[in-house]
Design a protein that fits this description.
The complex is a heterodimer of chains A (326) and B (275). Chain A has 326 residues and is of the alpha/beta class. Chain A folds into two domains: 168 residues, Thiamin diphosphate (ThDP)-binding fold, Pyr/PP domains (Rossmann fold, 3-Layer(aba) Sandwich), CATH 3.40.50; 127 residues, 3-Layer(aba) Sandwich (Rossmann fold). In chain A, strand 6, helix 9 and strand 7 form a beta-alpha-beta unit. Chain A is globular and about 55 Å long. The two termini of chain A are 31 Å apart. The relative contact order of chain A is 0.13. Chain B has 275 residues and is of the alpha/beta class. Chain B has a single domain, classed as 3-Layer(aba) Sandwich (Rossmann fold), CATH 3.40.50. In chain B, a hairpin with a 2-residue loop joins strand 4 and strand 5. The relative contact order of chain B is 0.17. The chains are: A alpha/beta (326), B alpha/beta (275).
Chain lengths: 326, 275
């Protein structure tokens, strides 16, 4: 089991996953890893500017507002032996540059890490145009791409280090909003592994990103009602840890998947695919239901789109009631 | 190679391009023939510092074929340069081949990056030039893009970036044959005077007859020697389908394979030119 933050730390520390990007790149550059960051006029927001602030200005490339060029410049930098990270917001860093990621980065199998921030509804008041809810679906469909969705600052730091250490394309999804810490500061994660954060026998809750804290809160509420939920962090959406998740499904016989993403094509779809092939049990998906986002504060939006702890509790009850029916 | 040898090499490459596309039954002869002399000048005119026996040689010059549909020209050039046997050329586009319809860098030695989706090569070349400068490597980065390709907006994102970064070791050659699939580029969606546009973006622009191989060698060598702050753009004025009378200046030969009898006529014309 991975080490979780102490209850005190979890209650007190709130930090955005995006804050890990520039800080970790600076840490890697200090250690001699040939990382470079390529951004598109958002170096402050994505925090890639911290790489320059730490004395590595020559390793930060600002393309201006030109995301397609950003991805292919990173591709070129990787050809010269660098570990190249791209920035921008998730909506532009994946959607606007999808063909560049597909045809140059993935098709050539280059050492480029697509690491945008401001994913999902965490970008809040900016509204639906900026709330990227389809990025995991887009990235998961690409051959050779690994997809990581860290839960908090410490996990994001670990994911960035993993991405740098793993040859080939990796997607790391980060958010704008400050979120409570889940993991111990020095947590280490592995690509392709899911982590059982809480054991239970009645239902499996598979989540990632900001939905981990919602899942843990839901598990507390369910325990009070006598339902023992197993909570799994599937931060590695691709490759998915089928072994750990299927073993849990075989034990609990039903599942809820929670993600700050569309219910189509992301973690929910990945777990349904796994269940269908490895352990057919009822699966309820908690996510944004085939629609665009809306302006509002992040915390409000979690409730508005029914992806908060209360929604997970409802979904668990539904999943449990369907046990044995399929 | 002297001028006569270079002309013969280009002639041989043209024959191979036509044979391989005919054998494949599909492919892009027009744009392959228009850039053949440019590739000949780069690979056989002493411009590129490269080594077929060591395709990843540190310090080498890099070449990126941005207009990836001209893959037959690149494959024939690389085979003649010794990167793989010329006998393999006829496997183009067939199941199991290394010679995919568009270049795949995971399969073909000498191909630095996969291309085929237009508009991306110049950005990759610019990033590569940044990377080589960062690590203190000597090499220059050359790329060939199509004039039709310059209708892609990303080309101008890259043009802006390369000038801003002062990538003097980046050389972009435009295969300016003035035709694209749907017709003349000035009729389809006119990109205007590309030399003037690159100059306006801060590039050092030069013009050349894209079928005069000694002139190409001169302008490419001069671009390499310049080592100024501005990236260099060479507008090479070319003829689509160059070397085959019935293909020249015909947009219809952009992406169509010759029939066997058309191949015979074309090869006979090229043989006559070689004499």
């Amino acid at each position: 089991m991975v080490k979780l933050a102490s209850p005190e730390a979890a209650a007190q520390t709130k930090k955005a996953t995006r804050a890990a990007l520039g800080a970790t790149l600076a840490e890697l550059a200090d250690a001699g890893v040939p990382v470079v960051a390529v951004d598109a006029d958002l170096t402050g927001s994505t925090t890639t500017k911290k790489l320059a602030d730490a004395g590595h200005a020559d390793r930060l490339f600002n393309c201006g507002i030109a995301e397609q060029n950003m991805v292919d410049v990173a591709a070129g930098l990787s050809l010269a032996g660098n570990v190249a990270f791209t920035g921008s917001f998730a909506v532009f860093g994946t959607g606007r540059a999808y063909d560049q990621i597909r045809n140059t980065v993935c098709y050539s199998n280059l050492n480029v890490k697509i690491a945008p921030t401001h994913a999902g509804i965490s970008v809040g008041p900016d509204g639906g145009s900026h709330q990227m809810l389809e990025d995991v679906a887009l990235m998961r469909g690409l051959p050779g791409m690994r997809v990581l969705v860290p839960a908090d600052f410490a996990a994001a730091r670990a994911a960035i280090k993993l991405a740098a250490a793993t040859p080939g394309p990796v997607y790391v999804r980060m958010g704008r909003a400050a979120v409570p810490c889940v993991y111990d500061d020095d947590v280490e994660l592995e690509i392709g592994r899911a982590y059982v954060l809480r054991e239970g026998t009645d239902v499996t809750i598979v989540a990632n990103g900001v939905e981990i804290r919602e899942a843990l809160a839901a598990a507390d509420a369910l325990a009070a009602e006598g339902i023992a939920a197993e909570v799994i962090d599937a931060f590695s959406v691709k490759p998915l840890d089928g072994e750990t998740i299927a073993a849990s499904l075989a034990k609990t016989r039903c599942a809820v998947v929670a993600e700050e993403h569309s219910v189509n094509g992301g973690l929910g779809s990945a777990v349904c695919e796994l269940a269908a092939e490895a352990c057919p049990v009822p699966v309820e998906r908690v996510g944004v239901r085939d629609r665009f986002g809306k302006s509002g504060e992040f915390e409000e939006l979690l409730a508005y789109f029914s992806i908060d702890a209360a929604a997970i509790v409802d979904a668990v009850k539904k999943a449990v009631s369907r046990k044995g029916l399929c | 190679m002297d001028a006569t040898q270079l002309a013969h090499k280009a002639n041989d490459i043209r024959k191979d391009i036509l044979v391989m596309i005919t054998e494949a039954g599909s492919g892009h002869p027009g744009g392959s023939l228009s850039c053949t002399d440019i590739l000949t000048a780069l690979y056989f005119g002493g411009v590129l510092d490269h080594d077929a026996a060591d395709p990843k040689k540190p310090g080498r010059d890099r070449f990126i074929l941005a207009k990836g549909h001209a893959a037959p020209a690149l494959y024939a050039t690389l085979a003649h340069a010794g990167y793989f046997p010329t006998e393999e050329l006829v496997t183009l586009r067939k199941l199991g081949t290394r010679l995919q319809g568009h270049p795949d860098s995971n399969l073909v030695p000498g191909v630095e990056v996969s291309t085929g989706s237009l508009g991306q090569g110049l950005s990759v070349a610019a990033g590569l030039a940044c990377g080589l400068r960062l690590s203190g490597e000597e090499g220059h980065v050359f790329t060939v893009l199509g004039d039709g390709e310059c209708e892609e907006g990303q080309v101008w994102e890259a043009a802006m970036f390369a000038a801003h970064q002062k990538l003097g070791r980046l050389v972009a050659i435009i295969d300016n044959n003035e035709l694209q699939i749907d017709g003349c580029i000035h009729d389809v969606c006119d990109p205007g005077d590309l030399g003037a546009k690159f100059a306006a973006f801060g590039w050092d622009v030069r013009e050349v007859d894209g079928h005069d191989i000694p002139a190409l060698v001169d302008v490419l060598s001069a671009a390499k020697a310049a080592d100024g702050e501005a990236p260099v753009c060479i507008v090479a004025h070319t003829v689509k389908g160059k070397g085959v009378s019935f293909m020249e200046n015909q947009a219809g030969w952009h992406g169509k394979a010759p029939k066997p009898e058309e191949l015979e006529t074309a090869l006979a014309e090229l043989a006559a030119q070689a004499e």
